[in-house]
């Protein structure tokens, strides 16, 4: 059933392939579930409307059409029809759905998608009329005068220029324009396989035989005449009223093959895009003249020499030959495609689905891309081989094509559609395999359809097809969204990406790889010349460190008809992406063959001076390349691939390291923590080593706690609950060894000196110890707590007396100092939760009722330990999880929103990217994990779709159904950001109460903009070492009404700030400091000040601050707090009375006293606050 479609997504990153036509209705709906409370932010937060937020909602949740709903509302179904038995067709359809599709919903989604991307009959008629119009215009062009091929002055260059880069200029031959011999419709519109929205009408324009001479196959003569013919067409068409716009572009990115793009007015006012292809008349050249072993570009002509050499002494020009053959075989291949596909609707719809799948992966564009034409020809090939049949449904065609593609080997075995074996001059398949990287031979047996494709593009298609088959086997996944609605941008797809920016250095590569003949074959396109060799070198150099390597398919340029064509290979940069093998990508040694083996010399030749002999632990002596010390930080080891790429490209291709921009570690400085030791700055890296040190100390403390014998009850389980134990602490703590000059100390404790800066922040690491069960535990909550306090006292004495640890005991916990880390050990027993829930009714009955205290305690002693253990396991499986989640938390905090969304919610969102990464692979780079986090946050449909985080793969099919049903039925009572885990399926307790609607909208807007800015920076060809990647970590402060400035010296986390300046105090850590005194810990005046502000003024304002070194507090007034209200003694705080013009005392009203509140901000922050800055004095908007 069709449904109405919402506003189309305006974000370029969203899928734009399935937008409605002009005739379709568009609708936007209110986010009723996202209405803010009276106490929530309103439009002050950046004036983001709810429509802006709706634009981010996934297209698959919005694909709706109005027609069916209107029909269903206007047509009343009788009971007789309603209970009518299903027909045979309906039964067959149900059976097919059960056997072939994941679900009925999946089939309905595919049906709806097909209706969205197929051309409507009205539009088809309009395009057919445009074809007639264009054909008449082309056939009406008059004959021109004859000119020498080099003489092109007759062409009015002010209005049109030849769309071909002509080098060398000297060429023999004459050109005379004659009206086309034939104008035919070709391409996807003719075969009815075109997909919206990029529908084009392809028209072939046949040059008459008289335009060409017998030797025009040589030295680019045919291609130049073809370009001149196209220019003449453009010259005449630009004067036509029906033609709105004229541009040139390259066919599939090949600079040899310009085509003319024109937009022609249609009946409805919407123009039709037409591509004009100029081809030679059939039979003019014999196909064997362009055999892959023959030469058609003379070396002496190309180099400007006069000496004439026989063809036998010339190098073959297979790529040039293929470019000409693509024109000569166009009609025959087009007829073959149309005849093979026949009138089968299922086959065509399958091709529609395949094209959408391909387009979402950005594989169908640019030079050497896996175009829709190749895809359609492959489906025709499978039909001819009976691997598909015309009775299949669209889904069967889609699935079987991907299955065959995943099992194919076009690089080593190749395929051919030619079944005619009579032509003895036709090259063999083995000849094609020796010449080209990828082989798919057409029906003539002469033309390789994939001649321009490199191995990396085919390998990516092969990889994606294999991955697609795995997804289709998993019925728990939303396959429709993964295949057709989720774009896979290059930057988020690959773990590491690098740009080769200075393409002038590729001239050196041509020499080093000895590719002069290939460069001539390609007409001087150095990028296309060198790319296959670069791929081979990089593949060998990275080898076991990667699972996939691809050179990015760049979009094909377009230019005005009066502009010069782009120079071949002038795309700006070459971008290469790699998927890393997490097990080997950080290995610091590249082990080679044994020193006495024949392969050793080749290894030394490949790696050069980096290669050396080393003895390994197994006693073998082998060649090896050592990239760095094994003791280096993990963040440094992640740059091994970068070092290998830069070294090998310099050695083998002559590309200097300065020309290579390697993307993978650009955000690491956000996790650096400046710290000093006596020897200078302490090496902190990105904190992974500090987390490991904390974990080791924790393990040793756990061992002590498990072996305690003198406690009345034993400890059943021990689990750390602090983020450091989940590897998600943004800045893992350093040992508490700051110098004592900052503190006053007695024998056991230290206190900060009021005349000194605040000591560096030392967090406590919380540990929950679950006690064994016993019938002697009290049945009342107060006795229970007193008994627990006695246990804490006993535990503190044992740790102090027997294990000589420094402890501080309180009724609720014991703080323990071990290896200069502070652990907070809390004894717990699950019965306490039940005691807090218990309450006695007036009738004397005991009932259980959830309270805020019981819910919080359950989170702390049940849910959080389990979550910590699970996320610890995620980190053990995927070692970049820590970096990604810490970048995400650092970003949220830098936007001053860290106190408005729980850390655990952010951690679960990042965990989802690792647990269920489809259609991507698991991110093996913190940067890529962070990019995907921003995309998930900004593009997930939070209002309509729960985020299901299947920790430990514990969800069952029944759980998915239950969660979906509960979410739909109870949506208005559930949290706005609903995150479901196996331990918390229906309540989402990590997001209950926060974020609120305005905060969530703000997060989404900031995430979308940050993603756009960061991807723009990383994709830029101008990226430099000085590029400011911290830009997205600096919050916009113009939205706040008041900004409270803090004294930097009083901020204990100042060295964690995004920007460090000369006034920042870098803490000094001493390695030889005695550990007999408990330091100042968990002391953060900024957080204490914020707590006071929220406790006193939460009715008046919202407060925002960066937890990690922020020295600004943003304040937003709540509009309703400044409304006039009746006087009340109980609610006079922060208000002032105003007297109305009456004599009645009841008419006294109160209003917010802003001046007094601002003064209180300064008073409460005495010694901490430096000034209170008023950003907006016009309070009329909040009164």
TrEMBL record:
Comp. bias (Acidic residues): 22-58
InterPro entries: NOL6/Upt22, Nrap_D1, Nrap_D2, Nrap_D3, Nrap_D4, Nrap_D5, Nrap_D6
Single biological process term from Gene Ontology: tRNA export from nucleus
Pfam short name (any one): Nrap_D4
Any one GO molecular-function label of the UniProt entry: RNA binding
Residue stretches in coiled coil: none
Family to which the UniProt record says this protein belongs: Belongs to the NRAP family.
Name recorded for this polypeptide: Nucleolar protein 6
Taxonomic source organism: Mizuhopecten yessoensis
């Amino acid at each position: 059933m069709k449904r109405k479609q919402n506003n189309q997504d305006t974000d370029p990153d969203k899928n734009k392939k399935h937008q409605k036509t002009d005739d379709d209705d568009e609708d936007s709906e209110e986010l009723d579930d996202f209405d803010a409370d009276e106490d929530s932010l309103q439009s002050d937060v950046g004036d983001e409307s709810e429509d802006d937020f709706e634009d981010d909602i996934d297209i698959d949740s919005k694909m709706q059409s109005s027609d069916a709903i209107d029909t269903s509302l206007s047509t009343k179904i009788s009971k007789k029809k309603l209970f009518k038995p299903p027909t045979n067709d309906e039964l067959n359809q149900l059976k097919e759905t059960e056997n072939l599709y994941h679900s009925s919903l999946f089939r309905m989604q595919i049906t709806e998608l097909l209706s969205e991307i197929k051309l409507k009959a009205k539009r088809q008629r309009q395009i057919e009329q445009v074809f007639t119009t264009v054909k008449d215009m082309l056939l009406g062009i008059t004959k021109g005068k004859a000119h020498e091929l080099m003489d092109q002055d007759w062409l009015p260059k002010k209005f049109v220029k030849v769309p071909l880069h002509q080098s060398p200029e000297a060429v023999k031959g004459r050109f005379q324009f004659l009206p086309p011999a034939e104008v035919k419709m070709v391409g996807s519109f003719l075969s009815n396989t075109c997909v919206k929205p990029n529908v084009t009408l392809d028209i072939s324009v046949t040059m008459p035989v008289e335009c060409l001479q017998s030797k025009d196959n040589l030295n680019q003569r045919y291609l130049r005449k073809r370009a001149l013919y196209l220019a003449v067409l453009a010259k005449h068409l630009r004067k036509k009223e029906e033609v709105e716009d004229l541009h040139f572009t390259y066919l599939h990115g090949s600079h040899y093959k310009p085509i003319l793009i024109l937009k022609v007015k249609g009946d409805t006012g919407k123009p039709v895009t037409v591509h004009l292809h100029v081809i030679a008349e059939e039979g003019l050249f014999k196909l064997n003249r362009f055999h892959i072993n023959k030469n058609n570009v003379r070396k002496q002509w190309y180099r400007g020499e006069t000496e004439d050499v026989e063809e036998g002494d010339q190098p073959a020009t297979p790529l040039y030959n293929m470019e000409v053959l693509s024109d000569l075989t166009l009609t025959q291949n087009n007829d073959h495609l149309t005849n093979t596909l026949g009138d089968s609707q299922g086959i065509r719809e399958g091709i529609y689905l395949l094209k959408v799948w391909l387009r979402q992966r950005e594989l169908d564009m640019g030079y050497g891309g896996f175009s829709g034409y190749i895809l359609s020809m492959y489906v025709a090939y499978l039909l001819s081989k009976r691997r598909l049949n015309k009775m299949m449904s669209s889904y069967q065609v889609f699935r079987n094509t991907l299955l065959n593609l995943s099992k194919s080997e076009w690089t080593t075995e190749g395929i051919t559609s030619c079944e005619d074996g009579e032509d003895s001059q036709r090259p063999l398949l083995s000849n094609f395999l020796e010449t080209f990287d990828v082989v798919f031979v057409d029906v003539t047996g002469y033309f390789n359809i994939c001649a321009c494709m490199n191995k990396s593009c085919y390998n990516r298609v092969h990889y994606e097809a294999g991955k697609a088959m795995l997804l289709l086997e998993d019925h728990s996944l939303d396959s429709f969204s993964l295949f057709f609605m989720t774009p896979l941008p290059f930057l988020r797809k690959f773990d590491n990406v690098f740009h080769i920016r200075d393409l002038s250095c590729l001239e050196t590569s041509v020499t080093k790889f000895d590719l002069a003949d290939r460069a001539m074959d390609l007409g001087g396109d150095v990028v296309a010349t060198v790319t296959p060799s670069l791929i081979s070198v990089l593949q060998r150099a990275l080898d076991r460190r990667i699972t996939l390597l691809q050179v990015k398919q760049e979009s094909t340029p377009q230019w005005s008809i009066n502009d010069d064509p782009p120079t071949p290979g002038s795309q700006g940069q070459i971008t290469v992406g790699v998927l890393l093998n997490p097990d080997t990508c950080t290995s610091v040694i590249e082990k080679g063959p044994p020193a006495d083996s024949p392969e050793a010399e080749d290894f030394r030749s490949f790696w050069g001076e980096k290669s050396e002999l080393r003895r390994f632990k197994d006693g073998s002596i082998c060649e090896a390349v050592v990239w760095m010390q094994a003791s280096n930080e993990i963040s440094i080891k992640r740059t091994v691939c970068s070092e290998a790429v830069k070294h090998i490209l310099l050695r083998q291709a002559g590309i200097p390291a300065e020309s290579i921009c390697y993307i993978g570690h650009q955000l690491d400085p956000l996790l650096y923590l400046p710290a000093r030791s006596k020897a200078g700055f302490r090496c902190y890296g990105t904190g992974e080593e500090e987390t490991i040190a904390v974990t080791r100390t924790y393990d040793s403390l756990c061992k002590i706690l498990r072996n305690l014998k003198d406690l009345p009850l034993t400890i059943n389980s021990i689990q750390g609950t602090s983020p450091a134990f989940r590897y998600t602490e943004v800045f893992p703590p350093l040992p508490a060894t700051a110098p004592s000059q900052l503190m006053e100390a007695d024998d056991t404790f230290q206190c900060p000196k009021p005349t000194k800066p605040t000591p560096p922040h030392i967090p406590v690491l919380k540990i929950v110890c679950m006690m064994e069960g016993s019938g002697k535990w009290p049945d009342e909550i107060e006795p229970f707590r007193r008994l627990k306090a006695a246990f804490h006292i006993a535990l503190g004495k044992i740790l102090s007396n027997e294990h000589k640890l420094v402890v501080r005991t309180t009724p609720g916990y014991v703080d323990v100092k071990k290896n200069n880390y502070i652990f907070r050990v809390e004894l717990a027993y699950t019965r306490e939760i039940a005691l807090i829930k218990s309450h006695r009714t007036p009738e004397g009955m005991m009932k259980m009722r959830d309270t805020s205290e019981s819910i919080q305690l359950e989170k702390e002693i049940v849910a959080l330990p389990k979550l910590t253990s699970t996320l610890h396991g995620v980190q053990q499986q995927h070692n970049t999880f820590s970096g990604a989640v810490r970048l995400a938390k650092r970003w949220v905090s830098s936007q001053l929103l860290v106190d408005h969304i729980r850390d655990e919610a952010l951690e679960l969102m990042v965990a989802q990217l690792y647990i269920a990464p489809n259609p991507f692979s698991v991110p093996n780079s913190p940067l890529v994990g962070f990019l995907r986090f921003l995309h998930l946050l900004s593009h997930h449909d939070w209002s309509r779709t729960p985020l299901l985080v299947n920790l430990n793969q514990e969800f069952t099919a029944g759980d998915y159904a239950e969660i979906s049903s509960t979410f739909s039925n109870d949506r208005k009572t559930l949290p706005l950001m609903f995150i479901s885990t196996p331990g918390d399926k229906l309540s989402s307790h990590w997001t209950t109460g926060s974020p609120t609607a305005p905060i969530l909208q703000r997060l989404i807007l900031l995430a979308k903009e940050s993603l756009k800015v960061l991807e723009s920076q990383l994709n830029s060809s101008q990226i430099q070492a000085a590029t400011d990647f911290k830009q997205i970590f600096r919050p916009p402060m113009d939205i706040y009404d008041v900004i409270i400035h803090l004294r930097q010296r009083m901020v204990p986390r100042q060295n964690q700030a995004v920007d460090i300046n000369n006034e920042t105090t870098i803490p000094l850590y001493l390695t030889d400091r005695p550990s007999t005194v408990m330091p100042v810990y968990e002391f953060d005046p900024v957080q204490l000040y914020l707590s006071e502000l929220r406790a006193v003024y939460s009715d008046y304002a919202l407060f925002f601050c960066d937890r990690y070194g922020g020295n600004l507090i943003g304040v937003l007034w709540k509009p309703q707090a400044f409304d006039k209200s009746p006087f009340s003694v109980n609610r006079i705080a922060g208000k002032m009375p105003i007297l109305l013009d009456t004599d009645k005392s009841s008419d006294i009203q109160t209003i917010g006293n802003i001046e007094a509140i601002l003064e209180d901000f300064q008073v409460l922050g005495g010694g901490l606050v430096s000034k209170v800055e008023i950003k907006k004095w016009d309070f009329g908007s909040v009164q």
